[in-house]
Specification:
about 110 residues; alpha/beta; 4 helices; 5 strands; about 20% strand; Calcineurin-like phosphoesterase domain-containing protein; Metallo-depent_PP-like
Length: about 110
């Protein structure tokens, strides 16, 4: 059970409500939100063609620009591992933003009940 949820709701039910990705626009800037990255990225590949494993397991290549006009927001890999031990909690580079840090990863239990 997830704390704060109605009795009888299992954590897998909660996760099944999520989409593989989200596209949002804030103040005219377009963003794509995924858990880990866009594995097997190709400019011609539609976001709707990505499979589950391609967006939740394979990390983003932060040295590569995926979109010229959109910002890719990811998590999965702690920023400290990408930025070679620096203490930043948010990484911004090459139209990517990673918002996963070792501090934020402690918010969830390691073994959900």
């Amino acid at each position: 059970m997830i704390k704060g949820f109605t009795s009888g709701v299992h954590w897998t039910d909660y996760l099944e409500e999520f989409e593989l990705y989200e596209e949002i626009t804030v103040n005219g800037q377009e963003y794509i939100l995924v858990h880990a990255g866009l594995h097997n990225f190709a400019e011609t590949k539609k976001l709707s063609d990505y499979q589950l494993y391609e967006v939740i397991w394979e990390p983003t290549d932060y040295d590569k620009v995926y979109f010229k006009d959109k910002i890719l927001i990811t998590g999965h890999t702690p920023v400290q591992l990408i930025s070679k031990g620096k203490s930043e909690k948010i990484l911004k580079m090459n139209n990517h933003t990673n918002c996963c840090s070792r501090a934020t990863r402690t918010a969830w239990p390691t073994t959900p009940s």
